[in-house]
Amino acid sequence: MSTIAANLQAVEATITAAAAASARPRSTIQLLAVSKTFPAEAVLEAMAVGQRAFGENYLQEGVEKIADVALAQPSTPVEWHFIGPIQSNKTRPIATSFAWVHTVERLKIAQRLSEQRPPEMGPLNICLQVNVSGEATKSGARPDELRELARQVAQLPNLRLRGLMAIPEPQTDPALQRAAFAKLRQMAEDLRDDGLPIDTLSMGMSGDMEAAIAEGATIVRVGSAIFGNRNYD
Ligand SMILES: *Cc1c(COP(=O)(O)O)cnc(C)c1O
């Protein structure tokens, strides 16, 4: 078995155990394999053992990989998620190449994505990124701005607001990991109380996916535990 296949099996076991520990059906949690910095060949290896959803952070790298994978496996449907920082002048390739965007934190970006999404592709699935760690990280909408942002994004025609995403400050203590994820879960519940039909909590990575699942994650974004350590050179 390839390393990637063995790693996927181990991650699957972790997710299954964490789901069982919270009495959640495994089917309520999607594994997003974060393939940034790894070549199309790594994605194809993961696809060979059934993985179908992949996350990319860097636009040009992601768009090229999507094309390479489609060329190599034209008849296998793959779901691509954009999970990196978004520059407002580079929204079009995101709107035309991806099925999901997890990192929307401003209305202006959402408006551009909606305008640039080809309607025949169906709505672009959106998660709003929230800054749950305050000063420690800069990315994400402020919690006090979230309600208004969500209300406005939910009205854009070519987007479908699915839920919330966070990258909390890294913590090794599982209790602290859970506390940050619990905040995001509460914010999602508040939006649901406002009447927004959201169903997604994108939270948890290689180092904290169990805590995220315990707090209700519906998508875990896992990179290094599947593909190995990244080399940014
Ligand atoms: C890189 C990245 C991940 C995966 O991180 P690992 O620790 O390698 O699992 C998940 N989410 C986002 C937004 C990332 O940028």
From TrEMBL:
Domain Alanine racemase N-terminal positions: 7-229
PTM sites of type N6-(pyridoxal phosphate)lysine: K36
Assigned keywords, A-Z: Pyridoxal phosphate
One Pfam family cited in the UniProt record for this chain: Ala_racemase_N
Stretches assigned to coiled coil: none
SUPFAM superfamilies assigned to the protein according to its UniProt record, in alphabetical order: PLP-binding barrel
Keyword Acetylation carried by entry: no
Protein family membership: Belongs to the pyridoxal phosphate-binding protein YggS/PROSC family.
Protein name: Pyridoxal phosphate homeostasis protein
Organism: Massilia niabensis
